[in-house]
C-alpha cells in the first residue's frame, strides 16, 4: 500500500509541476495564476543559499520550513515522494533496475555518496561570500530551466510541424477539426509564437546527460550529485517516523533490499543502513522474501552506515569555494558593463541581482515576445544563464510585468504596470551608416511608429532634400529624445534592416545605474 501511495504521490506532483509549468505562460493578459515557482517556494536549498548570499530573507521562503519540518520526522520524503526531477529519474532508473544483475548490489556505489555533500558545502560557503550558485544544481531550478529553455521550444516546434503537415494534406472533415484544435492549444498548451532560445541545445544536452546517468545507476543524480538531497539528508538523518530496521536472524543475505533501494541506503548487511540516503520508498520492505525488513517509528539508532565526511575534505572544499568566488568575478565586465547586458525592468542593481538570481529561467519562459534570453558571457561566469534582453529576438512589451511576477527570489521586482512603464532598461542609438533615411535618403518611420513611450522617444526632423531627378521632397530623419527612451528595444526589433538594424539599444542610462545620462 505504501509503495502504491508513493507512486501516486510522485505522479500527482509531477503532473502538478507540468500543469504549473504550462500555466507559466502569457495567456493574453498581464497576470498569472500560480506559476511553477510554487515548487521553488518550498525549496530549502534555494531559501538558504539566497539568505546566505543576500543576508535577507523573503517571507515566501518561510514555506521551505514546512519541507524542513517534515524532513526532520520523515527523512528525504521530498526526494522520494515530491521532487519532479526525482520522479523522472525514478522512471528511467526503473528500466535500469529491470535488467538482470550480474552480481549482488550492481549499480550501487556507496563511495560516491559523499560527492553531493561536498557540492552542498561548496554552494553554501560560496553563498556566504556572495556567490549564489545553488540555482545551477538545485533540482527544481535545474528542471525548470531545462524544460523552459531546452525542451519547451522543441516540443512547440514538433507540434506546430505536425499541424502544418496536416494542413498540407488538406483532408476533408479533418483539417477544420485540426484547425479548431490548434486554436484551442495556442495560448494554453502552446506558446502564441514559436519560442527560440540561445543555448537551447547545450542546456537540453546537460539535462539529457543527467537523465542518462540513470542507466549507470538508478537515480544516479539523486544518490550522488543532488545538493538539495544532501541538505535534506543532513536535516532528516534521525528520520524518527520511518526508520529501517533489518532483523539479522531472519535475513537470508539475498541482497534484494540493496538492489531495489532507490537511494543506495544499503539496508544490508544489518546495522549498516544509511538514514541520510533513504528516500522512504518502502522498496526494501516489500521485496524482502524473509520479511526481515521493517519500517517503523523509533527513536533508537537502527543503522550506522552514513557516509563519513572527512574534516580535511570539508576544509578543502570550503577553501575551494572561497578561492572560486573572487576568481569568477574577474573579467572585463568588472571594469566596464557589457553594452548588451540589458536586464529586465525591475531587475535589482547588478551585484545584488547576481546574488539573488537562481537561473531558473521562469522569466524567460513567460516573456511574451521571447526577448529574454540566457546570458553566456555578457555577465561573466557569475552571471551565466541569467536573463538578458536581446532586442533582435524580442522586445520588452510596454504593458507586461510577467517576469517580475514569476521571479522566485525577488531578483526582478514585482512592480505595478505604472511603475514598470517608467523604468529605463537602456537607451537606443541610431547607426546613421545603416538607418535608411540617413544612409539611403529614403523615408522610413517604423521605429517612430512602434515607440510606446508617452510623447514618443523617437521624433522626426524634417529636412528638404533633392532626389536624383532634381525633385524636391521632405525627408523625415528620426531623432531620439533620451529623456523619454526606456530602452524597450521594440525599435531595434521592428527595424526593416533585419540583419543589422539601423537603431540599436544598449544598457546605458538604465534606471538601476549609479549615474544617469541625458543627451
Task: Give me a quick take on this structure.
The chain is mainly alpha-helical and 519 residues long.
Tally the beta strands.
8
Number of helices: 23
Q: How much is the radius of gyration in Å?
A: 28 Å
Q: Helix amount, in percent?
A: 40-55%
Tertiary shape: elongated
| Class from helix and strand fractions | mainly alpha
Q: Strand share of the residues? A: 5-15%
Arithmetic mean pLDDT: 90
In the predicted model, the low-confidence regions spanning at least 5 consecutive residues are: none
Largest sheet: 2 strands, antiparallel
Strand order of the largest sheet: 1-2
- Amino- and carboxy-terminal Cα gap: 72 Å
Structure description:
This protein has 519 residues and is mainly alpha-helical. Among the domains are: 2-22 and 36-150 and 204-296, no CATH class; 422-519, 2-Layer Sandwich (Alpha-Beta Plaits), CATH 3.30.70. It contains 23 helices and 8 strands. The chain has helices at 2-23, 37-41, 44-54, 64-74, 77-82, 84-98, 114-128, 134-137, 139-169, 175-185, 200-212, 220-224, 227-235, 256-260, 283-287, 311-328, 350-356, 362-366, 402-406, 417-420, 436-440, 446-450, 490-494; strands spanning 243-246, 293-296, 372-374, 387-389, 427-430, 458-466, 472-480, 503-506. It has a two-stranded antiparallel ribbon with strand order 1-2. α7 crosses α13 (227-235) and α9 packs antiparallel against α10. The termini are far apart. The mean pLDDT is 90.
Amino acid at each position: 500500500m505504501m509503495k502504491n501511495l508513493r507512486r501516486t504521490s510522485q505522479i500527482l506532483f509531477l503532473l502538478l509541476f507540468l500543469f504549473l509549468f504550462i500555466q507559466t505562460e502569457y495567456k493574453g493578459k498581464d497576470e498569472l495564476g500560480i506559476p511553477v515557482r510554487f515548487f521553488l517556494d518550498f525549496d530549502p536549498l534555494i531559501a538558504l543559499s539566497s539568505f546566505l548570499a543576500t543576508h535577507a530573507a523573503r517571507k515566501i521562503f518561510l514555506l521551505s520550513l514546512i519541507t524542513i519540518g517534515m524532513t526532520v520526522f520523515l527523512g528525504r520524503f521530498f526526494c522520494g515522494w515530491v521532487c519532479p526531477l526525482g520522479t523522472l529519474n525514478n522512471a528511467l532508473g526503473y528500466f535500469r533496475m529491470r535488467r538482470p544483475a550480474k552480481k549482488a548490489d550492481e549499480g550501487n556505489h556507496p563511495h560516491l555518496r559523499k560527492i553531493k555533500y561536498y557540492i552542498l558545502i561548496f554552494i553554501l560557503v560560496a553563498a556566504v561570500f556572495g556567490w549564489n550558485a545553488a540555482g545551477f544544481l538545485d533540482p527544481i531550478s535545474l528542471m525548470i530551466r531545462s524544460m523552459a529553455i531546452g525542451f519547451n521550444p522543441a516540443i512547440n516546434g514538433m507540434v506546430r510541424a505536425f499541424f502544418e503537415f496536416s494542413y498540407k494534406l488538406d483532408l476533408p472533415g479533418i483539417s477544420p477539426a485540426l484547425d479548431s484544435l490548434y486554436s484551442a492549444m495556442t495560448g494554453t498548451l502552446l506558446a502564441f509564437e514559436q519560442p527560440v532560445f540561445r543555448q537551447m541545445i547545450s542546456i537540453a544536452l546537460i539535462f539529457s546527460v543527467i537523465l542518462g546517468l540513470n542507466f549507470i545507476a538508478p537515480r544516479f543524480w539523486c544518490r550522488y550529485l543532488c545538493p538539495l538531497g544532501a541538505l535534506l539528508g543532513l536535516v532528516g538523518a534521525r528520520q524518527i517516523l520511518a526508520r529501517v530496521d533489518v532483523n539479522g536472524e531472519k535475513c537470508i543475505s539475498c541482497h534484494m533490499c540493496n538492489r531495489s533501494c532507490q537511494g543506495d541506503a544499503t539496508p544490508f548487511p544489518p546495522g549498516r543502513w544509511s538514514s541520510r540516503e533513504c528516500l522512504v520508498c518502502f522498496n526494501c520492505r516489500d521485496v524482502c522474501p524473509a520479511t526481515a525488513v521493517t519500517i517503523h517509528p523509533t527513536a533508537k539508532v537502527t543503522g550506522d552506515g552514513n557516509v563519513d565526511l572527512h574534516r580535511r575534505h570539508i576544509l578543502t572544499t570550503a577553501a575551494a569555494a572561497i578561492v572560486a568566488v573572487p576568481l569568477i568575478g574577474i573579467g572585463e565586465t568588472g571594469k566596464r558593463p557589457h553594452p548588451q547586458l540589458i536586464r529586465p525592468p525591475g531587475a535589482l542593481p547588478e551585484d545584488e541581482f547576481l546574488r539573488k538570481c537562481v537561473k531558473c529561467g521562469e522569466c524567460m519562459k513567460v516573456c511574451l515576445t521571447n526577448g529574454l534570453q540566457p546570458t553566456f558571457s555578457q555577465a561573466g561566469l557569475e552571471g551565466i544563464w541569467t536573463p538578458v534582453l536581446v532586442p533582435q529576438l524580442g522586445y520588452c512589451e510596454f504593458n507586461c510585468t510577467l517576469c517580475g511576477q514569476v521571479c522566485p527570489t525577488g531578483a526582478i521586482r514585482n512592480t505595478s504596470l505604472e511603475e514598470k512603464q517608467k523604468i529605463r532598461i537602456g537607451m537606443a542609438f541610431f547607426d546613421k551608416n545603416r538607418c535608411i533615411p540617413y544612409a539611403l535618403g529614403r523615408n522610413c518611420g517604423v521605429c517612430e511608429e512602434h515607440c510606446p513611450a508617452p510623447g514618443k522617444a523617437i521624433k522626426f526632423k524634417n529636412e528638404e532634400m533633392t532626389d536624383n531627378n532634381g525633385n524636391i521632397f521632405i525627408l523625415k530623419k528620426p531623432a531620439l529624445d533620451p529623456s523619454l527612451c526606456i530602452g524597450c528595444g521594440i525599435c531595434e526589433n521592428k527595424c526593416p534592416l533585419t540583419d543589422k538594424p539601423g537603431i540599436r539599444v544598449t544598457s546605458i542610462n538604465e534606471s538601476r545605474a549609479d549615474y544617469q545620462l541625458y543627451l
